[in-house]
Specification:
By secondary structure, the chain is an alpha/beta fold. It has a single domain (about 5-170), classed as Carbon-nitrogen hydrolase (Nitrilase/N-carbamoyl-D-aminoacid amidohydrolase, 4-Layer Sandwich). The chain is built from 5 helices and 8 strands. The strands form 2 sheets. A 5-stranded mixed beta sheet has the order 1-2-3-4-5. Strands 6-7-8 form a 3-stranded mixed beta sheet, with no helix packed on it. The longest helix has 17 residues, at about 15-30. It is globular, with a radius of gyration of 15 Å. The termini are far apart. Mean pLDDT is about 90; it is low at about 175-179.
Length: about 180
């Protein structure tokens, strides 16, 4: 297995620019015969959650968005597995999420952050959600799971109890000026 970790410069709040960067990294990974390419948490926007739902939802995408579909198509075309984090919106609720897309372009793992703390403590749980279960996927390299950011510190027993072969940890490596 040849694994690569992408550490792109993320343009805060600019999905179109970040999407172009993601495509470039995937194409480079394909040329380098990478099997699995891991991107950071919230790679499409940066982890720029303000706690203001009306602002934050502008930067969230659905798992069925054109961005995810295009990444899946590129994954299939290049025969590469891709893992990435994004701010997800589902039925009006925002999640810190990650997906693993296989080399056929199928989403084989979708995990939402389990730990609270990725958004403002004043944020409404009706607007900012958390996963209620831990998911895994069987891959050619064994059983794979995600931990998203603070999950590593707050709920590592999920991954431990899953008997994983590979733990993917998409993490927002830097924060914007809003801190």
């Amino acid at each position: 297995m040849k694994l690569a970790v992408a550490v792109p410069e993320i343009a805060e709040h600019d999905i179109a620019v970040n999407f172009q960067t993601i495509q470039t990294y995937i194409k480079e990974a394909i040329q380098s015969n990478v099997d699995l390419l891991l991107f950071p948490e919230a790679v499409l926007t940066g982890l720029v959650i303000s706690g203001n739902y009306d602002v934050d939802k502008k930067y969230a995408i659905s798992i069925n968005s054109e961005y995810i579909k295009q990444i899946a198509k590129l994954s299939q075309t290049g025969g590469i597995w891709v893992a990435l984090g994004f701010i997800e919106i589902d039925n009006g609720i925002l999640y810190d999420s990650a997906v693993l897309i296989d080399n056929n372009g199928d989403i084989v793992l979708h995990q939402r952050r389990l730990s609270e703390g990725w958004c403002s403590t004043a944020a409404s749980p009706k607007e900012y959600g958390y996963a209620d279960k831990y998911s895994t996927a069987d891959t050619p390299w064994g059983k794979v799971g995600f931990m998203l950011c603070g999950d590593l510190f707050n709920v590592p027993y999920y991954a431990k109890n899953a008997n994983l072969d590979i733990l993917l940890f998409p993490f927002a490596r830097c924060f914007g000026s809003w801190l």
